[in-house]
Amino acid sequence: MKVVICGAGIAGLTLANRMSALGNEVVLLERAPGPRSQGYMIDFFGTGYDAAEAMGLLPAIKDVAYTVDEASLLDEHGRKRGSVQYTQFARAIQGRLLSIMRPDLERVLRENLPSAVDFRFGTTVTAVDDHGDGVRVGMDGGEIEADLLVGADGIHSTVRRLLFGEIPLRYLGFHTAAFQFDAPEIHASIDNRFCLTDTVGRQMGFYALRDGRVAAFAVHRTPDPTQPADVRAAVQEAYRGLGWVVPAALDRCPPSAEIYYDQVAQIELPRWGKGRVVLVGDACYAVSLLAGQGASLGIAGAYVLAHQLAEQPVEAAIAEYERLWRPIAEEKQHTGRAGARWFLPESRTQLRIRHVALKAARLPLVNRFVAGALAGKSTALIRNMRDARSDMPGITA
Ligand SMILES: Cc1cc2nc3c(=O)[nH]c(=O)nc-3n(C[C@H](O)[C@H](O)[C@H](O)COP(=O)(O)OP(=O)(O)OC[C@H]3O[C@@H](n4cnc5c(N)ncnc54)[C@H](O)[C@@H]3O)c2cc1C
């Protein structure tokens, strides 16, 4: 089978890996002119972790992972007000938790692509003609005839728009930003922690990167989903006055082109595919950073799709992929929406309640609850697929 995948992010790279390893011809199109270095830290666990393990990618991902001991909440003077122990959380899920910068995860996926994958940076899909026997994919500079087109082009998917028209996102009431900067004194004070401001309505957090730089993560409430024209100015305005190291971080905020900035949103679609075109990852089931598992679901969803395509004809495979994977993605979307209120406290009272909740999170019973919530159906699904095709070649082998 010949497949065109639009979008070489986490889901697209995983699908390209898997489809190629299963003997398919793969053309992978990425709009960006080359690999991106911007990004944010991802907590990687759950089904994506299982799928990465099943593909033999876990050792390479572990090599680029960071050690994070705890998330610390700090007041405007840098005094600790609360914390969550990552080690405790990791223990609750048998250590199957990694902290990885998104560009590092993409690099591992890219470096493990089989050489047969036709990977084209600086290219996007401009037209789709599904004529029943195949799909003609128009792109800048020509067209490709294929058996399948997959849109793995993220929450603002072009393939989704070409397939279903303009469908509004479900805005969750936040904007988020991420950037990196040099600040040796901040780097040294953070160490192996994720340090966050303990604040109402807006929050910044910091990680120390191994190259000596600091990765900043920011999120704030706002009723308007519109992307600001000047991202750097918007970030400096939104987080001004938070105290601690925030003024220094805002001073060193890079130009807009080097800042990741987006609204926090989900997408819900009546169908994930039509004919010989299908979507995967954030393009059809973005859960948002509030659910904290989008990358994991991108990898696992691509794994499930590739396996279905190996088992049956295209349209039946697409239907089965959606039947198996939609309930799992929808459950995570629900979790994300339910957490919106507590993700970022709206008042001092909520802030205080969060402190109490963090203390309760140290109880063993909560550990068992967390582990139960993270395992379950989706983990079993990936393991069953892996076992059913244990003869398949490993990606890294
Ligand atoms: C601040 C933040 C923190 C997060 N934290 C976590 C976390 O802790 N754990 C977790 O699991 N997830 C987390 N996520 C979510 C996770 O990053 C996403 O869900 C995940 O990246 C989705 O992967 P994807 O491949 O579907 O889409 P993307 O990663 O968005 O990739 C889409 C790719 O398609 C390309 N593209 C877009 N349009 C086109 C086009 N027209 N033509 C060609 N290419 C195109 C893009 O350039 C990009 O390379 C977080 C997200 C944010 C914003």
Could you name the key traits of this structure?
alpha/beta, FAD/NAD(P)-binding domain, 16 helices, disordered C terminus, FAD/NAD-bd_sf
List the helices and strands and how they pair.
Blueprint lengths: L1 E5 L3 H12 L3 E6 L10 E5 L1 H8 L3 H7 L5 E5 L5 E6 H7 L4 E5 H10 L6 E4 L3 E6 L4 E5 L2 E5 L1 E4 L6 H7 L5 E13 L1 H7 L2 E5 L4 E7 L4 E9 L9 H8 L7 H6 L8 E7 L6 E2 L2 E3 L2 H4 L8 H18 L2 H25 L1 H4 L4 H13 L3 H11 L2 H12 L9
Parallel strand pairs: 1-2, 1-11, 2-7, 4-13, 11-18
Antiparallel strand pairs: 3-6, 4-5, 8-9, 9-10, 12-15, 12-16, 13-14, 14-15, 17-18
Helix pairs in contact: 1-5, 1-11, 2-11, 2-16, 4-15, 11-12
Bound molecules: flavin-adenine dinucleotide.
Organism: Kutzneria chonburiensis
Pfam family, one: FAD_binding_3
Keywords: Monooxygenase, Oxidoreductase
Task: Describe the 3D structure.
The protein has one domain (2-169, 266-388): FAD/NAD(P)-binding domain (3-Layer(bba) Sandwich), CATH 3.50.50. It is α/β, with parallel strands linked by helices. Strands 5-4-13-14-15-12-16 form a 7-stranded mixed β-sheet. A 6-stranded mixed β-sheet has the order 7-2-1-11-18-17, sandwiched between helices. A 3-stranded antiparallel β-sheet has the order 8-9-10. It has helices at residues 10-21, 47-54, 58-64, 86-92, 102-111, 158-164, 184-190, 231-238, 246-251, 282-285, 294-311, 314-338, 340-343, 348-360, 364-374, 377-388; strands at residues 2-6, 25-30, 41-45, 70-74, 80-85, 97-101, 118-121, 125-130, 135-139, 142-146, 148-151, 170-182, 193-197, 202-208, 213-221, 260-266, 273-274, 277-279. The site of flavin-adenine dinucleotide has 35 residues, from helix 1, strand 2, strand 3, strand 12 and helix 10. Residues 2-312 form the FAD-binding domain. It holds the Pfam family FAD_binding_3. GO terms for molecular function: monooxygenase activity.
